[in-house]
Specification:
14 helices
Amino acid sequence: MPERFVKTVALIHRLLSWTFAVVGLIFLFAPNGTVRFINAAGALFRIFPPAAESDLQFWLSLGFGYMVLVTILAAQIAADPRRHRPLMPILAAGKLASSLTCVLFFLFSRPTFLYLLNALVDGSIVLIVLGCYAWLGILEHASHRTAPPSGHVATLLRLVTDTMVPQDGSFEVGGQAARLDDVVWRYFGQLHALGTVGLTVILYVVEYAPYLCGPRRRRFSRLSAADRERALGGWETSRWPLRRQLLNGLKLAITLHAYDSRTAEAAIGYDGCYLREKLLAGPNAELHRARLGL
């Protein structure tokens, strides 16, 4: 994983932790002063009613505790973003709750600038934190792109390759016996740093497409072998060009490697000499003779 991206994520969460700490202290020591300041800022727009001040300290205590919690979470993430990446959705969940409740208060209680401002600020923090979470996940996935697939992705890839190259189909050896899933996975990993990420996205699109396109309203992995074949056949004849192109690209990668085996060559009567004979009869014959040791 590129270290500069990890450092950028760490810096973002370090700045967030400092911001949470400062804002939390401001809330604690000047709660009504904060409300008056934001009311004054909202008054510039001449459309927002002022938010009410309060002397009740109970909600202030709960709010300060929340700010302490998000400060600690952001500081932990900043210390080691890769190790503490699972904490990011927790931080985002807290800020999402704060943002959504302010939206509800703005719509159904009193449309003050205070509610709107907090909804926008905390909503932006949610997007930033989840963006960092997703980006680190993509980079981590890309750094292990040559490793074999695992989990549900491995199951989906095996089912797709077995459907396109079935056992005892055109060739005696099917996709599972030829381990086409591992070969295709490595191929996509070698195409681009994010090649396996793209393949994963395509596989999940295939997984949930039957809910929209049939032949049955269930996931691809839960279809029978015959229904999986009909589902992929529907991709080839789809009215949507993008859908056809996605399947054609996947089919090309799978069938290219399926034909690149001695079993497939024997099944179609290819002895492996055609290309060599063409090269030795071409303009660079001497070069190829030397390369082949002839």
